[in-house]
């Protein structure tokens, strides 16, 4: 396959109201797809409307929603439909159904994601958290897909990579290796309140290095909420913010952490002892609390400029 052509990609789930809608929106983002893909979505039994939590999350992250709609997969098997290059199912029900005959003989793979719409309707916080989790899982997988060297991969080799992406986050068979899809390293970013610098660092790492790194953040004395300036600074950069909340470092002590980054001096001094030795780096950033939005934006830019290369070097990743 050529790296120069634009690929048509269809994401499928049963209702075409949540996961497939998020996937379509993510791949169509210029920052993710780099203009090399045209993404679509459809359902085997469309719900008829897009889930409002999906719309809310996308709008909060300044991702266009005007043309999103829940539709049948029959539209993409009809005469005049786009010639498809890839078809991905993102729910188990759609994966188990007999699909139409697609124009273009596309490559297919199953990238199952837990249904964020399965949460009880009256639990708004859990609904938003479920959609945020689904969004991040899809973004990581789609980023992996968009970064594949299509000019060098074809046939069985490409199919292997597509299938491997679908198993991200599932138990890994140690006998199976893949040069294009390495295992993610877990990075924990620590500060005192986990309300500003470490939150921005978590989002920036996951967005820029999501194919290689899974970033978490926590605080030694977490604040009640994420700072408004941090949220706004992330949104101005088109970065996801829904579901962010301060967490106590005790909540991540059982995680298998590959690198700890302290971003304030207090966290460096009170960094906990983990169950196994973990490499650490200290990279302090200015605390913009109580300052204008411009200060948060400057700190965001500083984090992006200094943290990304530091983490790459510490973990030995490109």
Walk me through the structure:
The protein contains ten helices and eight strands. Helix 9 links the parallel strand 7 and strand 8 (280-282). The longest helix has 23 residues, at 124-146. Helix 7 (197-209) crosses helix 10 (293-315). The chain starts with 6 loop residues before the first strand and ends with a helix. The strands form two sheets. The chain has a four-stranded parallel sheet with strand order 2-1-3-4. By secondary structure, it is α/β, with parallel strands linked by helices. Helices cover 35% and strands 14% of the residues.
User: Which structural class fits the helix and strand makeup?
Assistant: alpha/beta
Strand content: 5-15%
Strand/helix succession = EHHEHEHEHHEHEHEHEH
- Terminal Cα separation, in Å? 24 Å
- Biggest pleated sheet: 4 strands, parallel
Q: What is the H level of CATH, i.e. the homologous superfamily of the largest domain?
A: Response regulator
Mean pLDDT: 85
CATH class term of the largest domain: Alpha Beta
In the CATH hierarchy, the third-tier topology of the largest domain is known as Rossmann fold
Overall strand count: 8
Q: Biggest sheet, strands in spatial order?
A: 2-1-3-4
Q: Which second-level CATH architecture of the largest domain applies?
A: 3-Layer(aba) Sandwich
Number of helices: 10
As for the number of domains, it is 2
């Amino acid at each position: 396959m050529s790296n120069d052509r634009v690929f048509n990609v269809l994401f499928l789930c049963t209702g075409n109201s949540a996961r497939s809608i998020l996937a379509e929106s993510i791949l169509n983002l210029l920052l993710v797809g780099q203009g090399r893909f045209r993404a679509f979505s459809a359902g085997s039994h469309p719900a008829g409307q897009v889930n409002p939590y999906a719309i809310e999350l996308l709008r909060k992250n300044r991702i266009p929603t005007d043309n999103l709609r829940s539709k049948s997969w029959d539209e993409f098997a009809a005469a005049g439909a786009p010639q498809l290059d890839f078809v991905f199912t993102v729910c188990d029900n759609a994966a188990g159904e007999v699909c139409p005959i697609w124009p273009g003989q596309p490559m297919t793979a199953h990238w199952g994601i837990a249904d964020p719409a399965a949460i009880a309707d009256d639990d708004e916080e859990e609904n938003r958290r479920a959609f945020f989790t689904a969004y991040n899982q899809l973004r990581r997988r789609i980023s992996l897909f968009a970064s594949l060297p299509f000019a060098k991969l074809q046939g069985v080799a490409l199919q292997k990579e597509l299938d491997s992406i679908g198993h991200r986050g599932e138990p890994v068979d140690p006998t199976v290796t893949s040069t294009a899809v390495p295992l993610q390293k877990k990075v924990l970013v620590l500060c005192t309140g986990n309300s500003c610098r470490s939150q921005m660092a978590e989002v920036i790492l996951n967005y820029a290095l999501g194919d290689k790194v899974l970033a978490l953040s926590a605080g030694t004395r977490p604040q009640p909420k994420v700072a408004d300036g941090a949220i706004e600074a992330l949104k101005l950069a088109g970065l996801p913010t829904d579901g962010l909340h301060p967490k106590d470092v005790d909540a991540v002590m059982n995680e298998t952490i590959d690198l700890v980054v302290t971003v304030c001096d207090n966290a460096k001094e009170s960094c906990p002892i983990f169950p196994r030795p973990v490499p650490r780096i200290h990279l302090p950033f200015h605390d913009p609390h109580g300052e204008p939005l411009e200060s948060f934006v400057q700190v965001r830019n500083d984090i992006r400029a200094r943290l990304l290369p530091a983490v790459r070097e510490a973990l030995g990743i490109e």
